[in-house]
Specification:
By secondary structure, the protein is an alpha+beta fold. Helices cover 21% and strands 25% of the residues. It has 5 helices and 14 strands. It has a 4-stranded antiparallel sheet, with no helix packed on it. A hairpin with a 4-residue loop joins strand 13 and strand 14. The radius of gyration is 21 Å and the shape is elongated. The termini are far apart.
């Protein structure tokens, strides 16, 4: 028996759009399945004739995972008209991929990119408890009190949440590793 999945997930795995963008295409009545307008939440298995904007959808892409070292100055975004350099502009790949995690424009580090939405979701979900490591440079001397407060978690007022406790290792007078 062939496994069915939601149409928006199927369209995303074909590299046409994100799931959210696929939902918009369906809402805008730009998707047909076997000659009929698609419904939100519709289940497909890929054997159907699926058209988006009147063009045939040619099946799922093979799953890929890429490692990309994001340099300073590149923005983790797919759509931002004000961003000079976007991750999606820098990684030229024939299949649509998206990134797991985010790094600020002024940060550098390793990003994983994939066309596998389930993998990206599992990696991004906070409750999965994936270990992350950062090397942080600060603009003041790192004291024992500073390390203790960081290790206990930092309160982010704008989000009204405290980060999880973590392990911290002092590397230099202005640098520490956070796990």
């Amino acid at each position: 028996m062939v496994k069915k999945e939601r149409l928006n997930k199927y369209l995303a795995s074909c590299g046409l759009a994100s799931r959210r963008e696929a939902d918009r295409l369906i809402e805008e009545k730009r998707v047909t399945v076997n000659g009929k307008l698609a419904d939100m939440g519709m289940q497909v298995d890929g054997s159907e004739e699926i058209l988006v904007n009147g063009k045939h959808v040619h099946g799922k892409n093979e799953r890929v995972v890429l490692a990309y070292y994001k340099p300073v100055g590149v923005v983790c975004t797919e759509k931002d008209r004000f961003a000079d350099k976007k991750v999606t502009d820098m990684v030229k790949f024939p299949v649509r991929v998206t990134y797991a995690g985010r790094l600020d424009k002024d940060s550098e580090g390793l990003l994983l990119l994939s066309n596998d939405g389930d993998l990206i979701h599992a990696m991004m979900k906070g409750s999965s408890g994936h270990e992350k490591e950062y090397i942080v440079k600060v603009n003041k001397e790192i004291t024992e009190d500073f390390l203790k407060k960081m290790a206990e978690g930092v309160y982010l007022q704008e989000l009204q949440i405290r980060t999880k406790p973590c392990e911290i290792e002092k590397i230099g007078t202005l640098t520490c590793a956070i796990q």
